[in-house]
């Protein structure tokens, strides 16, 4: 009843753009929390950074599933619009509670997340009652109900390892269910590969979220530089950070970013290509958030000592982005450019030595690797005719 009609426009609606605004704030909250993880004096940083990653994964799943539903179902239908608005409010609550999600605000964060997922399923179950599509929402509802037990139970253990364990289990369940098609006794699994995809709409949604992530990066470096001394070190770091932002955009958009809609349309199983693109964007967005954290640290401390933990964002951020971009390229062309693999190898090789140089030098080294990938892309484009899309079979 509510499925998007083939003749409907695939243009992204203003409501979806409105929904995305929350994630500018959400990504900023994630980056600020990660900065605190890296700058607070602790014996072990990894558990705190792991908590931030877990919260980011929950936010990303909310965005990805909401974008997918607006792609499959009529975006003008009142039920779909209700889901988008409710998810927007719930995401805003999650973002507000995120800094203290592992403290006193855990129940509010978990409650908002659970309400979004279960409320979405219940709304469509009611709207699609009496149709075959109704069964399609029973599966995810059961999975989200199971993970809700871990989410809510974990929120009852503030400042405890138990919360991390239970929430990790909950996130793993939610992602596993989405990847496997929510297998359910008596109902089987959802035929994910057969789900219709509005190619132009879905590809545009991914591009828009990528731009939002770059916007969060620009916001971070702008606010950090404006609050600095504006001396030579912060200015140099600011210039490098802006150049890195441009390189991220250039590497993303070249060919694969432009041709995602064509790849989805040409694929035998469009939903599989769209799913691979979602997975790739998860890596790329995480990389950009890490890069934003890196440049906040570098602009504030350009010539100080490079803490070993900082290498995880100064070098690891670009590495995450390049890895995601390689997955993205494979989804569109069924192959990965040599420059992506070489770039990842170079970042891995130089990372141990970066603790011996100032943060600004480490940032410049990472930017040079990205510049090499962008130059390789430009050279490939001039050598011959442009390669057509060829999604995996």
Write the layout of secondary structure elements.
Elements: H1 14-39, H2 46-72, H3 78-97, H4 106-127, H5 133-155, H6 161-180, H7 199-226, H8 232-266, H9 270-300, H10 311-314, H11 316-333, H12 338-350, H13 359-383
List keywords for this structure.
393 residues; mainly alpha; 2 domains; 13 helices; 74% helix; globular
The gist of it:
The protein has 393 residues and is mainly alpha-helical.
Describe this structure in words.
The structure is a single chain. With 393 residues, the protein is mainly alpha-helical. It has two domains: 14-190, no CATH class; 199-383, Up-down Bundle (I/LWEQ domain). It contains 13 helices and no strands. It has helices at residues 14-39, 46-72, 78-97, 106-127, 133-155, 161-180, 199-226, 232-266, 270-300, 311-314, 316-333, 338-350, 359-383. Helix 1 (14-39) packs parallel to helix 3 (78-97), helix 7 (199-226) runs antiparallel to helix 8 (232-266) and helix 7 packs parallel to helix 9. The radius of gyration is 21 Å and the shape is globular. The model has no long low-confidence stretch (mean pLDDT 92).
CATH architecture group name of the largest domain: Up-down Bundle
Question: What would the CATH topology of the largest domain be?
Answer: I/LWEQ domain
Please give the share of residues in helix: over 70%
CATH class of the largest domain: Mainly Alpha
Structural class: mainly alpha
- The pLDDT mean sits at 92
């Amino acid at each position: 009843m509510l499925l998007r009609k083939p003749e409907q426009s695939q243009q992204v609606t203003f409501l979806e753009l409105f929904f995305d605004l929350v994630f500018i704030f959400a990504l900023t909250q994630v980056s600020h929390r990660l900065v605190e993880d890296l700058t607070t004096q602790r014996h072990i940083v990894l558990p705190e950074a792991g908590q931030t990653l877990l919260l980011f994964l929950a936010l990303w799943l909310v965005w990805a599933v909401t974008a997918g539903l607006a792609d499959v179902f009529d975006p003008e239908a009142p039920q779909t619009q209700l889901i988008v608005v409710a998810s927007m409010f719930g995401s805003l609550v999650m973002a507000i509670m995120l800094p203290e999600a592992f403290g006193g605000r855990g129940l509010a964060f978990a409650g908002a997340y659970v309400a979004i997922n279960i409320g979405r399923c219940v709304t469509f179950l009611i709207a699609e009652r009496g149709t075959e599509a109704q069964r399609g929402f029973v599966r995810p509802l059961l999975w989200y109900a199971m993970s809700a037990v871990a989410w809510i139970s974990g929120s009852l253990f503030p400042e405890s390892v138990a919360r991390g364990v239970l929430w990790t289990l909950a996130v793993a369940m939610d992602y596993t269910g989405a990847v496997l098609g929510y297998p359910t006794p008596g109902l089987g699994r959802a035929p994910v590969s057969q789900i219709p995809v509005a190619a132009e709409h879905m590809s545009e949604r991914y591009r828009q979220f990528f731009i939002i992530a770059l916007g969060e990066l620009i916001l971070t470096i702008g606010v950090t530089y404006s609050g600095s001394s504006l001396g030579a070190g912060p200015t140099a770091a600011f210039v490098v950070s802006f150049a890195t932002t441009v390189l991220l955009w250039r590497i993303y958009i070249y060919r694969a970013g432009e041709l995602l809609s064509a790849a989805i349309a040409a694929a035998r199983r469009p939903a599989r290509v769209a799913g691979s693109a979602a997975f790739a964007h998860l890596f790329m967005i995480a990389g950009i958030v890490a890069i934003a954290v890196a440049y906040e640290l570098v602009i504030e401390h350009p010539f100080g000592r490079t803490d070993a933990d900082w290498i995880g964002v100064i070098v690891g951020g670009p590495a995450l982005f390049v890895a995601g971009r390689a997955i993205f390229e494979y989804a569109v062309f069924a192959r990965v450019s040599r420059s992506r693999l070489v770039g990842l190898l170079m970042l891995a090789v130089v990372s141990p030595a970066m603790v011996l140089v100032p943060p600004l030098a480490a940032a410049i080294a990472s930017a040079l690797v990205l510049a090499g990938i962008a130059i390789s892309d430009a050279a490939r484009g001039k050598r011959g005719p442009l390669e057509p899309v060829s999604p995996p079979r």
